[in-house]
């Protein structure tokens, strides 16, 4: 098993969450709906008709949750802000009560010696923007996103040192605007490509605004989901499909942001969406890359809008409840490749696995499979470091069991179990496993 002394002294240990997945309080204190409120309330979109109306009730229980982070020895917590909680229309009038919540959360974290890592966007676009034609498919969103970033920098910039623009821009554009299985449920190749480009432009505009407004030394980054893509078979069509999937999943948002250039395939697909100065406008120097990774992807050729289909892992492979392949070596591979390709410090900002383990008769949650997963993935991270990859921290997904998007509340990703009926939190065995590593940290 990995031990604390395998990691450098200043290695960062922490956890990640996202606003819509944990906060609840969906209509309290002036919060307006996001596209995820509308989507989850549309019958048939989420398994079991689940919504984020209450979720983990973190809005009211954040102090208890922060106390659990401190007890684990975590010194970093990545959370996201609900845009429609602070700007109900997405722009214009500010909801002071909404901003106050993040103010309280940040103060609580700092009082517990935990650095707040604030992510501006983890998928919950204000519904008003979408309905008024100002969502990601419109270029007009770019200055609105920068203004939203500026508002947060203004209010929290004196205390928040780590900022991320987007969580998994590659995933939410594809799932929400291409495949249509996430909010806002659009299934259209052109709208998908529009969304990708406008998200990239919004990133650049927000970084410029943050740099202008934040104190010197603020650490600004972005959080793509990256994974090796393998062909589902040996045939040439599937190999070509894997190359396409690699471009779409790994390059379309990360390359312009971290290298200043679209990859050739995405560029061809984008056509005249890319105006002459756009790549320069997207590319702003960044301090860190947050890497989210769960498993390798498998691609087969299909005559659909993408030219590929995502397939399950090979026969007999070890899988999680999500059907995702447990393959630590793919993690090592993508860590090494990412560090080399983008030449920027990398923090793992999401990694973990889903199960459905409940407390036993003694009230203990024995999630041994998760411990084994975390141990092997952390081992792979150490191997990547030994190969020269600049990996500086590990934030597990997730602090709490939560609303797993279209899958509802079935898959449990937390290192803390949540009983959704009573909101009782129970740290799992995996929580204690990570705490043993984090608590031994000189900074904890
Ligand atoms: C990632 C998302 C996160 C969570 C995990 C399981 O793609 O960023 O919100 O759903 O997957």
Biggest sheet, spatial arrangement of strands: 1-2-3-4-5-7-10-11
Shape: globular
Secondary-structure-based class equals: alpha/beta
Average pLDDT works out at 98
Radius of gyration: 20 Å
What is the CA-CA span between the terminal residues? 21 Å
How many E-type strands?
13
Largest sheet: 8 strands, parallel, barrel
Helix and strand element order: EHHHEHHEHHEHHEEHHHHEEEHEHEEEH
In DSSP terms, counting alpha (H) and pi (I) runs of 4 or more, how many helices? 16
Give me the oligomer status: single chain
Low-confidence stretches: none
- Beta fraction: 5-15%
The helix fraction, in percent, is 40-55%
Bound molecules: beta-D-fucopyranose
């Amino acid at each position: 098993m990995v031990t604390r002394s395998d990691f450098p002294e200043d290695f960062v240990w922490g956890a990640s969450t996202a606003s819509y997945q944990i906060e609840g309080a969906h209509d309290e204190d002036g919060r307006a709906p996001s596209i995820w409120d509308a989507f989850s309330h549309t019958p048939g979109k989420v398994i079991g008709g689940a919504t984020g109306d209450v979720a983990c009730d973190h809005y009211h229980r954040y102090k208890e949750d922060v106390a659990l982070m401190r007890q684990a020895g975590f010194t970093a917590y990545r959370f996201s802000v609900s845009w429609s909680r602070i700007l109900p229309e997405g722009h214009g009038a500010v909801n002071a009560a909404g901003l106050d919540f993040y103010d309280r959360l940040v103060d609580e974290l700092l009082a517990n010696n935990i650095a707040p890592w604030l992510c501006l966007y983890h998928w919950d676009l204000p519904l008003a923007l979408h309905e008024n034609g100002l969502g990601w498919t419109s270029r007009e969103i770019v200055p609105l996103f920068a203004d939203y970033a500026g508002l947060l920098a203004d209010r929290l910039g004196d205390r928040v040192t780590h900022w991320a623009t987007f969580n998994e821009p590659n995933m939410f554009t594809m799932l929400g605007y291409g495949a249509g299985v996430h909010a806002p449920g659009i299934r259209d190749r052109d709208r998908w490509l529009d969304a990708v480009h406008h998200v990239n432009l919004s990133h650049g505009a927000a970084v410029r605004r943050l740099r202008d407004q934040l104190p010197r030394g603020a650490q600004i980054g972005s959080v793509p989901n990256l994974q090796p893509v393998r062909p589902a078979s040996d045939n040439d069509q599937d190999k070509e499909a894997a190359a396409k999937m690699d471009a779409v999943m790994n390059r379309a948002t990360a390359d312009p942001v971290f290298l200043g250039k679209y990859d050739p395939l995405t560029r061809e697909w984008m056509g005249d969406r890319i105006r002459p100065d756009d790549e320069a406008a997207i590319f702003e120097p960044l301090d860190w890359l947050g890497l989210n990774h769960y498993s390798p992807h498998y691609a087969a050729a299909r005559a659909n809008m993408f030219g590929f289909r995502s397939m399950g892992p090979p026969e007999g492979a070890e899988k999680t409840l999500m059907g995702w392949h447990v393959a630590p070596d793919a993690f090592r591979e993508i860590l090494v490749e990412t560090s080399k390709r983008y030449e920027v410090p990398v923090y793992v900002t999401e990694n973990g696995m889903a199960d459905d383990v409940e407390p036993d008769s003694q009230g203990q949650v024995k999630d041994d499979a998760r411990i084994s997963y975390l141990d092997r993935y952390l081992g792979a991270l150490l191997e990547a470091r030994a190969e020269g990859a600049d990996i500086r921290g590990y934030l597990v997904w997730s602090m709490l069991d939560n609303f797993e998007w279209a899958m509802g509340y079935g898959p449990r990703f937390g290192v803390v179990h949540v009983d959704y009926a009573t909101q009782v939190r129970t740290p799992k065995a995996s929580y204690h496993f990570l705490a043993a590593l984090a608590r031994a940290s000189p900074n904890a």
